[in-house]
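Lab notes, practical 5.
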Amino acid sequence: MSFLRALLGRSKPAKPDLDRLFGLPSAAVTLDAAAGFTPTGTGSVAFRAAEGRAFADLEKEITALLDADNGPPVEQQRDEYGYTWLVVRSGSTDSMDISDLVTDLHAVNSSLEHAGFGPSLLCSLVGFSDDSGRRFALVYLYKRGTFYPFAPQPGQRRDNALELQMAAYVGNDLQVEEDKSRWFPVYGAPGLTG
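Output from the prediction step:
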């Protein structure tokens, strides 16, 4: 089968590796030291909600898990493309405290994956900003197991120079998506704008 795949020019898709999310704290330290960008304290997970009671119960279970024991507030939002976003706000913008936020995002992704809804997962993101008000997110592509920076500007434009610069900074900390055509825009994504 691999010979046929090579002959037809197809590659085997990468397996998701949720543990790569745990590289975000070291990337946050790098971004703070190199460029003055700190976490906004907000992250989110996007997925296509399935129909039925099982999925609705799972969403409630995940929200209850994260809200338990004075955990971070979790809110659910739907975007114009039909994706559901679970938004987690840790309240901390310290590069060293992003670990709790990443653990919460990992728990959301893992819960969905273990319940059989892995194919419904789209991406996770963590927002960053600097003192001048510039913002961007590190986006984790679930199906690729890679990250890319997304820096929106007003009018549904992107700051491509900032994205390339941030990708260069975190290249030693995270698996950056090499195929830039997969750096899709997530304009208005919850967790990116505040």
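Observations recorded by the TA: The CA atoms of residues 48 and 83 lie 5 Å apart. The two ends are 47 Å apart (CA to CA).
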